[in-house]
Amino acid sequence: MTDRINGLHHVTMLASGAAANNAFYTQALGLRRVKTTVNFDAPDVYHLYFGDGLGRPGTVMTSFPFPNAARGKRGTGEAALTAFAVPVGSLPAWEERLAPLGPTTREIAFGEERLLTEGPDGESLALVEVAGDDRTPWTEGGVGVETAIRGFHSVTLALRDVGATADLLRLMGYREAGREGAVTRMRLDRGNGAQVVDLHEDPTARPALQSAGSVHHVAFSVADRAAQAEVRQELAAAGFQATPSIDRDYFWAIYFRSPGGVLFEVATEEPGFARDEAPEALGTALKLPRQHDHLRERLVRQLEPLEGLA
């Protein structure tokens, strides 16, 4: 069992329109767009990052908005719900804020009150009341400190059988923290605040069909490349085939497929989003991977205009 995982790093979803995706996460949820770049493998598609003021690991929702993509179909083998942590007592304010965008539902899970909602592509989201979360929120997006999102609370993976994925998470340092119905809660005892993974078992469900509104992958956080190499070695010893470490400009990443079919990533906390922009200017300029910089003129013409992009 490794002790190098610090919790979630980021969650990456597929979307159908950059402007709508940007508006929801920055205006409705009040997150900061901390980086505006493009997909490494499809440079005509944005890669947008939304998080706290600095895009700290454990706070960042990212998206690949493929223009006019059809909606995905929910099923097993994917992250079915992404949950954010908010202060205790803030859900009524969130209900009022999100009401114009669609229905919301209140429920209690594992003793925590949460508000279920959807993003613009039907992505399943939750706001969970968490006591004592001392992460510093972004409060310049129209949401005050008494309400603002602190970062991720958890992801819920939809699986036909949770056993092998639970074993993998134990290898990654998680322990079982409880069960409610078909859901097994796995938790790290220490980390960055985004330390919960819920496993929802449904042996009769069909596999998911990923497209807009689907989570593409779930990334876990490690301090640096040395820690990442140790995790990769332990994964290999357990029979998992992880990619070599790949430079993603703002972190280094390895990828592997979990037993239930969900794509996992292990990403470093360094160098961070301020490596090519001043902290006060994060997300305001189009930043391109080196190999795509020669495409800048064409991409500026073709990519959908975004509010706040210079």
TrEMBL record:
Q: Which domain of life is it from?
A: Bacteria
Q: Which SUPFAM superfamilies match?
A: Glyoxalase/Bleomycin resistance protein/Dihydroxybiphenyl dioxygenase (SSF54593)
Q: Which UniProt keywords apply?
A: Dioxygenase, Oxidoreductase
Which is an annotated Pfam family here? Glyoxalase
GO terms, molecular function: dioxygenase activity
Q: What sequence ranges are listed for the domain VOC? A: 7-143, 151-269
Name of the featured protein: Ring-cleaving dioxygenase
